[in-house]
Every structure is written in C-alpha cells, then in structure tokens.
Design a protein that fits this description.
The protein is mainly beta and 79 residues long. 10% of the residues lie in helices and 56% in strands. It has 1 helix and 5 strands, in the order H-E-E-E-E-E. Strands 1, 2, 3, 4 and 5 form a 5-stranded antiparallel beta sheet that branches. A hairpin with a 3-residue loop joins strand 3 and strand 4. The longest helix is centred in the N-terminal third of the chain and has 8 residues. It is elongated, with a radius of gyration of 16 Å. It starts with a helix and ends in a 5-residue tail after the last strand. The model has no long low-confidence stretch (mean pLDDT 91).
C-alpha cells in the first residue's frame, strides 16, 4: 500500500473493545509493576487530522474513570 491508500483505509473511528491493561511506573510492595487500565478512542479525519482520547480507569472493568486526556493534531508523512 502507498501512503494515500493507508490514509484512506485509516479514515474513521476506532475504540478499545474492552479496557486495556498496561504496565505503569508504580510498583507493588513485592516489586511487581502496578497495572494501568485504560480505554482508547481514536478518530482519523480527512485532511490528515486526528483525535485520540485516552481514559485512565481505576478498575479493570472500566467502570470508574480516573482521568481523561485528549490529543488532537495533524498527521504528516515525512520521507
């Protein structure tokens, strides 16, 4: 696929189908990493614009949101 084909195929909206579990920098008493639960919502718009919303959840079921971060920008291919 060339760049234009990838962009065309990427248009639209994508969301996590279930809360994701990721490692954090925080550690449990036994030295293991504490889990980080999140959901992602990504939209790719025409004219190379995008929006990503990441919601950090307290629980592994995504029922108690703790923080939400929105990132908006423009996508540009270089090279």
């Amino acid at each position: 696929m060339n760049t234009d084909q990838v962009k065309a195929a990427s248009l639209g909206h994508w969301e996590s189908i279930t809360p994701e579990i990721r490692p954090s920098n925080a550690k449990n008493a036994d030295g293991t990493l504490k889990p980080f639960y999140l959901n992602r919502s990504f939209t790719y718009f025409p004219e190379d614009r995008f929006e990503l919303i990441v919601t950090n959840n307290v629980d592994p079921f995504g029922k108690k949101p703790l923080a939400k971060m929105t990132i908006k920008g423009q996508y540009r291919v270089v090279g």
